[in-house]
Specification:
Rossmann fold, globular, 41% helix, alpha/beta, 11 helices, 4-stranded parallel beta sheet, 2 domains, two-stranded antiparallel ribbon, single chain
């Protein structure tokens, strides 16, 4: 459709029109470029307008879909009740603590389906993370038999991740407390070896992947920066203190990565403890396809190990570098 020369759209602009898009959820106004010009002398812009219009439509449609999905979960959250059927489980822990392997093991019982991290991806820009997670848990496609639901949320998802998306940090304590009031079960995973935890973050960022599902040997090495190492350790220590303050106020099951998840021989015992805490029982063996990424001694992973070990001593964590801890 072409307008007469000089004609303006409802916004007063000669080269655009306002399109109202709606689909089940709230309506969204999207400014849509039209691939033509009303000024004859500027017709050479038409090919460029057509090229620009297509990616604009794709972005607008994606943003509209994301907004509709979030709105759908918000609506479900409004309808949520503490008496909803099924067990709702929150795995709450820092990154590289074994949250994914724990969720995988619990889901292998057939009582749950994996949901990973709802506040990553589509949920990363959720304005109201508590309502979003509650609504997410009420989606039938996310639930196991009887309405059981499990996911894991890291404190970072409510703090630094939101800041990167231009959103204000959420109150971590209020988030957890709200779920507990709705009868959610909280599992907390703690990793005793803070050096291995931080190094796992560094290796993950260097390799570009965070989970391993095969037995191929890992040969990646990393060069550790002193200031970066100290900053990560300080942040993790501060976050651990915040976690303990929050957990002291709520019922929860505390797990230790090295004791409960590192050795496959401990997996059935760990899952039984989790299900007992929730009030469920399993009817089949547990398993996971996930494999530990870093099984080599630190001396083989860290290129500048001599410097690295000195910096760890500065942090008063040298005990984690003992010979029997190098290959943990």
């Amino acid at each position: 459709m072409h307008r007469p020369a000089g004609a303006a759209c409802s916004l007063g602009a000669p080269c655009c029109k306002l399109s109202l898009l709606s689909n089940r959820a709230p309506r969204y106004l999207v400014l849509r470029l039209v691939g033509h010009s009303t000024i004859p002398q500027m017709n050479f812009f038409k090919p460029a307008a057509r090229l620009l219009r297509k990616p604009f439509y794709k972005v607008a449609n994606r943003l509209s879909r994301i907004s509709r999905e979030r709105a759908r979960f918000y609506v479900k959250a409004i309808r949520a009740r503490a008496t909803d059927p099924g067990a709702r489980v929150l795995i709450f822990a820092q990154g590289r603590s074994g949250t994914t392997v724990l969720e995988s093991l619990v889901c292998s019982t057939g009582l749950f389906v994996p949901n990973d991290e709802p506040l990553i991806g589509l949920g990363r820009g959720a304005q109201w993370p508590t309502a979003y997670v509650k609504g997410f848990s009420r989606d039938p496609t996310r639930q196991g038999p009887g309405g059981n639901f499990i996911c894991h949320v890291k404190p970072d998802h409510l703090d630094t991740y939101r800041a990167r998306s231009g959103l204000a940090p959420a109150d971590i304590n209020a988030f957890v407390q709200s779920l507990v009031r709705d009868r959610w079960h909280v599992l907390h995973v703690h990793r005793g070896d803070l050096i291995r935890q931080v190094l796992s973050e560094i290796v993950g960022q260097a390799s570009g992947y965070w989970h391993k599902r095969d037995d191929r040997p890992e040969m990646l090495t990393v060069h550790v920066d002193r200031d970066d190492l100290h900053a990560r350790i300080r942040y993790n220590k501060a976050m651990r203190a915040r976690e303990q303050e929050i957990l002291a106020k709520i019922p929860h099951l505390s797990l230790v990565y090295e004791r409960d998840l590192l050795d496959p021989a401990s997996h059935e015992r760990t899952v039984d403890a989790v299900l007992n805490h929730i009030g469920l029982t399993r009817a089949r063996p547990v398993s996971t396809e996930l494999r530990k990424i870093n099984t080599r001694p630190l001396t083989e992973i860290v290129e500048n190990y001599e410097e690295f070990s000195g910096w760890v001593e500065e942090l008063e964590l040298g005990g984690l570098l003992a010979p029997d801890a190098k290959s943990r």
